[in-house]
Amino acid sequence: GAMGCGMAVNLVKAGFTVSAFDPSAEARANFESRSGAKAVSTPREACENQDAIVTMLGDGKVVRAALFGGDAPIAAAKEGTLVIDCSSSSPPDTIALGKELAQRGIGLIDSPVSGAQKGADEGTLTLMVGGDAALAHRADKILHAMGKSIFHTGPLGAGHAMKTINNYVAALNLVSALQGLLVGKKYGLDPEQMVDIINASYGRNAATEFVLKQQVTSGKFAANFKMWLMAKDARVMAETARHVGYSAPLPQDLTDWLSDAERMLGRDVDFTNMYKYFDTFWEESATS
Questions:
Q1: Whether 274 contacts 263, CB under 8 Å
Q2: Which of 73, 83, 84, 155 could form a disulfide linkage to 44, CB 3.0–4.6 angstroms apart?
Q3: In this model, does residue 286 exceed pLDDT 70?
Q4: Which residues lie closer than 8 Å to 209 by C-beta, 6 or more apart?
Q5: Which residue in 38, 118, 141, 163 is the catalytic one?
Q6: Per-residue pLDDT tens for 127-183?
Q7: The CATH fold of domain 161-278
Q8: Quick check: is 99 catalytic?
Q9: What is the pLDDT of residues 185-201, one digit of tens each?
Q10: CA 159 distance to own-chain centroid
């Protein structure tokens, strides 16, 4: 995929022998043209005789299916292999996967990333690592080939917990900013000026600085992050909160909003189209 390709290319550049696989022939060809290395044609080949296996997929359920589904590609991995899951996965899923892999003598650390495709291509990602300290240390050179800032956050699942919290906060920043724009417009405020005022005040955040004018008030809605991915990230946060017994409603509220927007607008539209979704929340009886 877009993220995984850049990360795999940087591993090749760092001197690692990489057996890259993607179900898409186009993606494999892209890796080959960018890295000069040959991709493999099956997931089993990607697992065979490796010291480490790096996964960058939709979520932990997809990771497990990729390793254990079909002909169980992970069965080809040798004992002592280290799996590094860079996906945005649910911590409970990660902990369960770790137990399954341990039964095969295979280690697991979670190392989700932040930095978008640009960071993946340039090797400047932030990586949040969870898992046994010795395994994290063993993976150090691999992680530094893909990212610039490496944080060991705690035991297995802690990296994925940190990533989902980061995405949750980022999504709520955007959601509150979009709703603020809509209410402000109803009062006759100028959206461009609203953004300028927020960015000169305590409401300033990444969404107001880098998304509102660039993608929303401009009408572009093309930040290059799909709605289904944001909805998935919200769902992971809700699952994570429930796993530790946290019952405040906002994580589930965010999940419900994004899931509704995905159904209404399409899974592959850019997530900034949440603006259009929230523009449906007007009461007909309200004063115009």
A1: no
A2: 73
A3: no
A4: 199
A5: 163
A6: 999 999 999 999 999 999 999 999 999 999 999 999 999 999 999 999 999 999 999
A7: N-(1-d-carboxylethyl)-l-norvaline Dehydrogenase; domain 2 (1.10.1040)
A8: no
A9: 999 999 999 999 999 99
A10: 12
